[in-house]
Amino acid sequence: MEEDKNDLSDRPAKASYSGKSSGIMKYSGMAMQMLGTILVFTYGGYKLDEWQQNKVPVWTLVLSLTSIAASLYLLIRGISKTGK
Q1: Which of 33, 54, 63, 73 has the greatest number of beta carbons closer than 10 A?
Q2: Taking the CB of residue 26, how many other CB atoms lie within 10 A of it?
Q3: Where are the bilayer-spanning segments (predicted)?
Q4: pLDDT band at 6; cut points 50, 70, 90
Q5: Pairwise CA distance, residues 43 & 73, whole Å
Q6: Cα gap 36→43, rounded to integer Å
Q7: Residue in 22, 60, 14, 19 with CA at minimum distance from that of residue 40
Q8: Domain locations in the chain as residue ranges
């Protein structure tokens, strides 16, 4: 009977700790995905402007703004999935 009481008291502490760490990992992963998306698209736009020798960095602006919109969309979609 004593062993059962010890097992029950350990479970909530472990569950709450693992829940915090998985939440941190999930949101830091989302942040890294956003950063990576923005950096890759912006770098691609920079290289396109360099290749086309544009005086105004049109591709850099277009692709960086597109990447921000795409990363926000993915962030909202990811957060709404975790809420369910």
Answers
A1: 63
A2: 13
A3: 27-46, 58-76
A4: low
A5: 20
A6: 10
A7: 60
A8: 22-53, 55-83
What's the CA gap between 57 and 39, in Å, rounded?
16
**The tokens of 10 are what?**
């350990």
CA dist 11 and 21 (Å) reads 16
Distance between CA atoms of residues 10 and 21, nearest Å? 17
* Overall size of the chain counted in residues: 84
Please report where in the chains the tokens 């960095």 appear, as a residue: 57
**pLDDT tens digits, residue range 9-56?**
555 555 555 566 777 888 899 899 999 999 999 999 999 999 999 999
Q: From the CB of residue 44, how many other CB atoms can be counted at a distance below 10 Å?
A: 15
